[in-house]
Design a protein that fits this description.
By secondary structure, this protein is an alpha/beta fold. Helices cover about 45% and strands about 20% of the residues. Strands 1, 2, 3, 4, 5 and 6 form a 6-stranded mixed beta sheet that branches. A two-stranded antiparallel ribbon has the order 7-8. The longest helix has 22 residues. The radius of gyration is 17 Å and the shape is elongated. The protein binds flavin mononucleotide. It comes from Knufia peltigerae.
């Protein structure tokens, strides 16, 4: 008789333009290569966290907040999430694309705000990591783009895949050490 599948790790995400999904998939493939069963899907395709042994959730940041679907997921699943190892991440371009003279301040404020929101819903979350995202500027009108550039702002793909891989590897190491 074959062994039952081990409980997978859930990697779930909210995205509007796909870059957070690509990061979630990268984390999932990294964990899979490390021997974990994984399930990677958008937050609105997760029916319950009960069948997962650990959860990693990520969201794009829009207007200094997580996307609504991701916040709603934390609200709905907060009881289940309290009983599992939970890591969280955000993708935002402020930390890389915002004009240099305000970049650090804006990114720090945004990170604190998102962390406060997550902790208020799931106090036992282990970590929140802010990664630089991807913003090609297409969501903004041409005058807004021009003004942003004049102020020193940049558009582009700022994702640091090395940092993302390292974070996934650290989570895998932590889970192995704890026998998750
Ligand atoms: C309408 C809009 C608002 C945004 N607001 C922010 C923001 O407040 N802070 C930030 O760091 N990035 C912001 N961004 C950048 C995105 O969060 C970032 O590019 C992210 O990688 C997008 O993820 P997605 O491709 O999964 O939707 C915004 C992007 C858009 C299109």
């Amino acid at each position: 008789m074959s062994e039952p599948d081990p409980m997978p790790v859930l990697i779930t995400y909210a995205t509007s333009r796909g870059s957070t999904e690509e990061v979630a998939e990268r984390i999932a493939s990294r964990l899979h290569a490390d021997g974990f069963a994984v399930d990677c899907r958008p937050v609105d395709h997760v029916y319950s966290v009960d069948n997962y042994k650990a959860v990693i959730i990520g969201s794009a940041i829009h207007h200094a907040r997580w996307l609504l679907d991701a916040e709603r997921f934390l609200d709905v699943e907060c009881m289940g999430l309290q009983t599992k190892p939970l890591w969280s991440f955000s993708l935002g371009s402020a930390s890389a694309g915002t004009p240099g003279w305000i970049r650090g301040k804006v990114a720090k404020r945004e990170q604190r705000r998102v962390e406060r929101m997550i902790i208020s819903k799931v106090p036992k979350v282990r970590e929140h990591r802010l990664f630089a995202g991807k913003d090609d500027g297409r969501a903004w009108s041409s005058p807004v783009r021009g003004m942003y550039r004049c102020m020193g702002g940049r558009f582009g793909d700022f994702r640091d895949w090395d940092a993302i891989d390292k974070w996934a590897d650290a989570i895998a190491k932590e889970m192995k050490a704890e026998g998750v």
